[in-house]
Design a protein that fits this description.
Blueprint (H helix, E strand, L loop, with lengths): L1 H16 L19 H16 L7 E2 L8 E2 L4 E2 L12 H11 L18 H6 L4 H12 L1 H22 L5 H11 L3 H14 L16 H7 L7 H21 L10 H11 L4
Antiparallel strand pairs: 1-2, 2-3
Helix pairs in contact: 1-2, 2-6, 6-7, 6-8, 9-10, 10-11
């Protein structure tokens, strides 16, 4: 894996210095536009490691204190019937993406709602045929999940620029470009959208304060492009996540996730 990440670092650095790819919608090229299959695979392994230590059992998970399970290498959210949460529900979006690619998603994963109504029920069935089969399928389709995560990230910049206040757009775009000039910065931009969203969903805020990609780019201090920008992106992300914890409902107990969130953001600041 270390050899793959070293190759990714070199390849992404070359990509960052190459002429820009054709713009995405809105004239804003997103991170990951020119990644090779090997680079995508390395990013997928890194995200899987971030979310669940690269373990197969972690491909079907339900956090303590949450109302829904998280599936796949990117821990895609899937709501049970009758629950309407504030977070963007990524599992149905992934299933649509996979189906469009011709993938045969297991029948349980194609259901409109998560069939387990509670964490206890989910873990009672953890070794059952449905969840075991779903984990096996997910472990065999890491590339498909990685492509979905990258596609979400590529579409995020245009959404972020459209949602940003007019006076912030030039700085937000400049910060994005600064971060994207390094291999770890490119990985950070891809991973963060999957990790905490693009920041444009008004429901994904506490006390009116968001923590997605938009807010992280707005929060960044003025630094040069390159590794300084990657380090500042990591620091800005931690500041926004600390603010999220401060503003979160006490009953959610989000402070227990601080160390893990900070550790994940720290990976953005280090060369791959």
């Amino acid at each position: 894996m270390q050899a793959s990440l070293r190759c990714l670092a070199l390849a992404l650095l070359v990509t960052a210095c190459a002429p820009s790819a054709p713009p995405a919608s809105g004239g804003a090229p997103g991170a990951g536009a020119n990644l090779s299959a090997a680079q995508r695979a390395a990013i997928g392994r890194k995200i899987w490691q971030n979310e669940s230590g690269g373990k197969v059992d972690g491909l079907t998970h339900w956090n303590v204190g949450e109302e829904f399970p998280s599936l796949g290498i990117g821990h895609f959210i899937w709501y049970p019937a009758g629950f309407n949460g504030r977070w963007f529900e990524t599992w149905p979006a992934f299933v649509r993406f996979a189906t469009q690619r011709g993938a045969d998603v297991p029948a349980v994963g194609r259901k409109p709602d998560c069939p387990w109504s509670s964490r206890d029920a989910f873990y009672r069935d953890f070794k059952g045929a449905e969840l075991s089969g779903l984990r096996k399928w997910l472990a065999a389709n890491v590339t498909l999940q990685t492509d979905f995560i990258i596609s979400r990230s590529r579409g995020a910049l245009s959404k972020v620029l459209a949602a940003a206040p007019a006076g912030d757009r030039a700085r937000v775009k400049a910060n994005y470009r600064k971060v994207s000039t390094t291999s770890n910065g490119t990985y950070a931009l891809i991973d963060y959208v999957n990790f905490k969203g693009d920041g444009t969903n008004a429901s994904e805020r506490y006390n009116g304060q968001g923590w997605g990609l938009l807010q992280v780019l707005q929060e960044m201090r003025d630094v040069p492009s390159g590794q300084a920008a990657a380090r500042e992106f990591a620091a800005s992300a931690k500041r926004r996540l600390d603010l999220r914890i401060k503003n979160s409902p006490p009953a959610r107990g989000e402070s227990r996730w601080r160390a893990g969130w900070h550790n994940r953001c720290d990976t953005y600041a280090r060369p791959l």
